Amino acid sequence: MSPPVATETLPSTAMPTKATNGSNGHVKVTDNVKVLEDLADKWDTFKFDHIRESQVSRAMTRRYFQDLDTYAESDIVIVGAGSCGLSTAYVLGKARPDLKIAIIEASVSPGGGAWLGGQLFSAMVMRKPADAFLSELGVPYEDEGNYVVVKHAALFTSTLLSRVLGFPNIKLFNATAVEDLITRPSTSNDGKIRIAGVVTNWTLVTMHHDDQSCMDPNTINAPLVISTTGHDGPFGAFSVKRLVSMQQIDKLGGMRGLDMNTAEDAIVKRTREVVPGLIVGGMELSEVDGANRMGPTFGAMALSGVKAAEEALKLFER
Ligand code: 48N
To answer: What is the pLDDT of residues 95-126, one digit of tens each?
Structure first.
């Protein structure tokens, strides 16, 4: 497929500023052991530096609105910060620090279904060879032969999230929902469309369009959207459902019954560009393809994210 073509002239977009107090854009962790020692036993005279409330307000709003401006034109938008979306973001952030990547997550807390294993149990199972991704992230695990176990799913998700948020070219907009897709006529003039960005709103606003009218959305232009919105939840399988309602695909295949071996191979292998400008990965893909579900094993989510990133990188080859 030819690389994404921006048919309209794009406004020049400043690259995200690098963190000022760290080398290569990562904030340097100060050595705080000394600071804590200095505080011990001096609590009676302890005092924070003085602040005016407006300083806090300006520190937050100045950055947020700068981010909205910077990422209004993004190179890639990832919809859904679950295990697949975050894995995609990690691979892209590491491979292409020159690309501006916006992650839109409807929930206040990113991570999707990966904070726990199955049935609210803590441990997370990943079948080999997904252990390679855990090693890449530095997540410790117990090796059980054909699979590995992370002692708590939150250890995987929090580590992955911290790596992703550490990239200066990635911005997470959480508590923000994608409530539509930006489209353009496809270059082949066949009545089909190309995806060219996302339509966003505060999630709480999106959930109340029925009881409060005229709450128009915002937008992010991007030549490529990667949708990993999962198979359930209030907004699950968002983009593929929207493709059906826009008559771009006939109907959803509907997720099939649980079969770990069939499901995980299929999800990874089929992660792909479903329509021009839209790559779908993770469990959202099971809804469009009618793939089986795998239940409480997460290797396919991580490797579907790796595959989605590789598909995206092909489109942005320098
Ligand atoms: O964790 P999920 O739901 O999705 P994946 O595909 O990253 O991981 C799926 C995985 O957790 C499983 O379902 C496991 C393997 N079980 C399988 C099985 O057989 O049951 O994350 C999707 C994220 C969530 O955080 C949603 O809040 C978010 O996407 N989201 C959205 N964010 C913004 N705009 C939207 N329209 C939207 N829809 C969903």
So the answer is: 999 999 999 999 999 999 999 999 999 999 99
How many alpha carbons fall within 13 Å on the CB side of residue 68? 13
pLDDT of 14 > 70? The answer is no
Q: Compute the distance from residue 80 Cα to the ligand 1 centre, in Å.
A: 6
How many whole angstroms from 44 Cα to the centroid of ligand 1? 48
84 CB near ligand 1 (under 6 Å):
yes
Residue 293 CA: which ligand 1 atom is closest? 19
At residue 152, the 3 state secondary structure works out as coil
Task: Give the ipTM.
Answer: 0.99
pLDDT grade for 191, boundaries at 50, 70 and 90: confident
For residues 25 and 156, what is the distance between their CA atoms, to the nearest angstrom?
A: 23
Give the Å distances, CA to CA, from 17 to 12, 26, 31, 98, 219: 15, 11, 24, 12, 21
CA distance readout (Å), 269 to 55, 264, 282, 310? 50, 9, 11, 12
Q: Which residue has the higher pLDDT, 133 or 188?
A: 133
Q: Which atom of ligand 1 is nearest to the CA of 294?
A: 19
- Classified as helix, coil or strand, 46 is coil
> Which structure tokens are listed for 276?
């021009």
198 is in an annotated binding site: no
Which residue has its alpha carbon closest to ligand 1 atom 24?
A: 112
Which residues sit opposite 198 in a β-bridge? 181, 220
Over 70: is that where the pLDDT of 3 sits?
A: no
Cα 111 to ligand 1 centroid, rounded to whole Å: 8
State the closest ligand 1 atom to the C-alpha of 235, by its place in the atom list counted from 1. 38
pTM: 0.90
178 in a labelled binding site: yes
Atom of ligand 1 nearest to the CA of 104: 33
Q: Could you say which DSSP state residue 34 is in?
A: H
